[in-house]
Amino acid sequence: MDSIFKGQVALVTGGTKGIGKAIADTLKDKGAEVIVTARNTPEAGINGYYFIAADLTQPESAEMIAKEIIEKYGRIDIIVNNAGANLGPGGGYAALSDEDWYNDWQLNFMTAVRINKALLPTMINQNSGSIINISTGAAKQPIWDMTMSYSSAKAALNAYSKALASELGPKGIRVNVVSPGLVKTTLMLDFIENIAASSGSNFDDTFKAIMDKVGVPLNRMAEPLEVASLVAFLASPEAKYITGTNYSVDGGASPTV
């Protein structure tokens, strides 16, 4: 499978670190030309990727990104909407302001909607393409005191993805969702540190409390590459009859099949 994406162009939003970087690296290693977006160029630089600096929460960014990709490459084959984060404070409904709700929905839902809308005309003209929206297990198992606004935005992403798959299937375009659970990224580790600090606890005790609350039979966080490997499979021809599906990568945390 080393050159399975040769000749294909892939966009990975939020592709400079964490899960996004693992996805970008995996697609590149398998032959794709990969474009990554982030607000700022990483200090380590970008090697082997085409980088577009963009704040995806700004509505005009999607059209700018799409225009630059099509002008440079003339096509788009894979879109991975990975940009996202749990921005709202913990504490439940009373702790969330209108701005908290707005920010989580802008980053975790509307960014994907806008990117897809801007690039889909090209995919439709090609009569081919694969879109993979990165969601979260918390969309199905929201934690009221940690992920309320984030979970709701990602739940909307799940429903949108299913509807989009139904619309685009006849046009040769597949849409799937990957829902990670706890993944060992800098963002996740910082999230745990912040909860620990706000509760007067330490990292280890806070991590154990989260693991106990979520319930992970494999008893560890996922590595980013374990998510990226599934994304690469779903984008590949080997998954050409798979669309409209949501795959969990959560170590068995989901209580139902």
From TrEMBL:
Source superkingdom: Bacteria
InterPro entries cross-referenced by the UniProt entry: NAD(P)-bd_dom_sf, SDR, SDR_fam
Pfam families, per the entry: adh_short_C2
Family label: Belongs to the short-chain dehydrogenases/reductases (SDR) family.
Protein name, entry field: SDR family oxidoreductase
The organism of origin for this protein: Flavobacterium endoglycinae
